[in-house]
Amino acid sequence: MDDLKLVPLSALQHFAFCPRQCALIHNEQVWADNWHTAKGILLHKRVDSGDPESRKDVRFERAVQVCAEQLGVIGKLDLVEKNLFTGQLTPVEYKKGKNKPGNWDKVQLCAQALCLEEMTEQPIDVGYLWYWQTRRRESVEFSASLRLNTQHIIEEVRHLINSDLLPKPVYEKKCQACSLIDICNPQHVAKDNSADYIAALFAMNRDIE
Ligand code: SF4
Fold first, then answer.
1. Residue 53 forms part of a structural domain
2. Which of 25, 63, 64, 198 could be disulfide-bonded to 48 (CB atoms 3.0-4.6 Å)?
């Protein structure tokens, strides 16, 4: 793990949306904002700006920095609740939309729990996802299969952000919501076979030599 880049928690979300977007942001340092990213930034600013506070038996800590070296993950958690009697920690992640099909939000939350477990040596069985659009808080149990799935995805992202790979674009409906669409240019790049052509020319030259 020593020579490898740590996986930012944000990279898991980018990878979930599109591996090419993840590589553009984390390998090529490309960024652009659109309406969706601006809304997300606004929400997280609002969440992060609250001071730590205690209500009843719970302490609320916001914008909590984590670094789990063994897991190889780094990042910032929106909110960690601490039960003042038991010391139990509970991560809470804020999402701007509503609950989506698939378990990507759960994977991101589970990665947060794994970080907290490594740093505090305390088991964390449950966390919450809070959806802005529906104003609902949903509990997520960190089952053995969710943990395994999360570790597997962290490995995939680690592999991608420690490589020079830039996955080819696949033009889909979601591209219209992607802030990098103008830079990625998926409709044209997907059709551009020049890289394959040049590689074939080199291979041909090698065969002739
Ligand atoms: S425009 Fe589409 S293919 Fe390109 S990075 Fe965004 S989601 Fe991925």
1. yes
2. 63
Provide the number of structural domains found in the chain: 2
Q: Is residue 97 in a domain?
A: yes
Q: Which of 184, 185, 189 to mutate to test the pocket of ligand 1 (most atoms within 8 A of CB)?
A: 184
Residues 57 and 123 in one domain: yes
What does the block give as tokens for 176? 């219209």
> What are the pLDDT digits (tens) for 14-32?
998 899 999 999 988 887 6
What is the distance between the alpha carbons of residues 40 and 29, in angstroms, rounded to a whole number? Answer: 19
CA distance 149 to 107: 8
How far is ligand 1, taken at its centre, from the CA of residue 160, in Å? 16
- Same structural domain, 160 and 175: no
Residue 1 domain flag = no
Model confidence pLDDT, tens digit, residues 109-168:
999 999 999 999 999 999 999 998 888 899 999 999 999 999 999 999 999 999 978 999
48: helix, strand or coil: helix
CB 59 within 8 A of CB 52: yes
Q: What is the 37 CA–ligand 1 centroid distance (Å)?
A: 14
